[in-house]
Design brief:
single chain; alpha+beta; five-stranded mixed β-sheet; 1 helix
């Protein structure tokens, strides 16, 4: 099942990380290729296979900030 997030949405970063790992994404220190994600504090960088560039998701507590 795809992971979908949008600004203002309530989401637990740990659950999002678990969902990405279950979807066969690889956790890395620095995202460089499709299918990878990285977490630094409340920032999640993810490179979906359908995108040309990685995406950054910022969390404020359990809310997606942007």
């Amino acid at each position: 099942e795809p992971v979908s997030l949008s600004g203002g949405q309530s989401a637990d970063l740990g659950e999002v990380v678990d969902a990405l790992a279950a979807a066969a994404y690889s956790r890395v220190e620095l995202v460089e290729k499709r299918g990878e994600f990285a977490v630094r504090g409340g920032i999640l960088d993810v490179f979906p296979p359908t995108e040309e560039h990685p995406l950054r998701v910022e969390f404020w507590g359990d809310e997606v900030e942007e």
